[in-house]
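Lecture 7 notes: from sequence to structure.

We start with a single chain of 447 residues. Read the sequence below before looking at the structure.
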Amino acid sequence: MIDKILIANRGEIALRIIRACRELGIETVAVYSTADKNSLHAQIADRSVCIGGARSTDSYLNTRAILAACEITGAQAIHPGFGFLSESSRLVRLCNRCAIKWIGPNADAMEAMGDKANAKATMIKAGVPVVMGSDGIVEDIDDAKKIAADIGYPVLIKASAGGGGRGIRRADNEDELESAMTAAKQEALRFFGNDEVYIEKFIVDPRHIEIQILADEYGNVIHLGERDCSCQRRHQKVLEESPSPIMTPELREKMGEAAVKAAKACGYTNAGTVEFLVDKDRNFYFMEMNARIQVEHPVTEMAADIDLVKQQILIASGLPLEIKQSDVRLSGHVIECRINAEDPKNNFRPSPGRIESIHTPGGFGVRIDTAAYQGYEIPQYYDNMIAKLIVKGKDREEAITKMRVALGEMLIEGVQTNIDYQLNLLRDPDFQSGNFDIGFLDRKDFS
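Now the structure, written as tokens:
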């Protein structure tokens, strides 16, 4: 077993990893920026190291500082959490050179899935359904026009190295194609340092369904059911749930088998998520694979009663999966709401600042993942998520009711939040009936 892990992240996910490590008897090293010197993860880890200034590029994206922190503390492994360097194959290769274990997939698998155009080709070869589109990178507007005409409008221009909803533009006709392609390439270059794009047929009003997988180093791969992430605003997830309101046992089995095929096709190990689009006829298409733990992993943890972070550490320690596919039992209905420091009434403007007071809900079937506390100063430099509120009920109706009660009990003063927005969403008749898709929140005003 690994006995000391450095956590190359911050906030609630850093706390989540620290707790899993402590339950396994593993020492933890937290890294933090100057803006996070009073953060909870830096205070409760066994050891903490400041790795740079407030900006991410000076700290949480500073590979040299992170590797140096491993060296001075004797950490044997790095857990990257999500975001920041969690999908950096370069850092994985550096870890290999330094004999530091990376708690995640190997660099080859990460690169195969990180380049969206290559990932699509890999999925086609593995027999996983994909959306029609370009065979690879689209070099110029003339190629783009030909491809779009062949597959039919509307189309999406997508960053090959993208993620998190960045570098994506829609074109409904040829007149819009060039400007959409230019905008997608510019955003891709700005966020990922790579302006390569590819084209896909736009699936009208799909659901966004993702399948959680676990894969060990001995070729064993299992899936843990689905999460419905269709409630998203401008490609950013707001609320996730499991099971999906559109799911059937047959569809779950087919999508689960496809996710396992996807993982095996690229030699994937550790925890990962295969994301699909599902159309109105329940046809599903591979979208991308996230080579890391997801923000919404607690949904699966509560539905399957499996600690995903512990499983990540055990797999990275070289242990085979003790869970077989036949052991996986999903129960109840789970909903997660992301509580953000933002002002929905003012175009969701971020609301950094000091939390004057905070009260979090509790009770049977209620979980809160947060690093916030009274007096905590939310920095302006990072993601504005304050907490993840997760509930589990015996069915969807009870889970919705439980979440409404929990949100009503959650009090945060000093900054603006989206709590009322989430409550309005939960009261919506279309949401309650399961009648929504990935464009739902962009069409309705819940502010």
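Residues 4-103 form a domain with the Rossmann fold fold (CATH 3.40.50.20). Keep this in mind for problem set 3.
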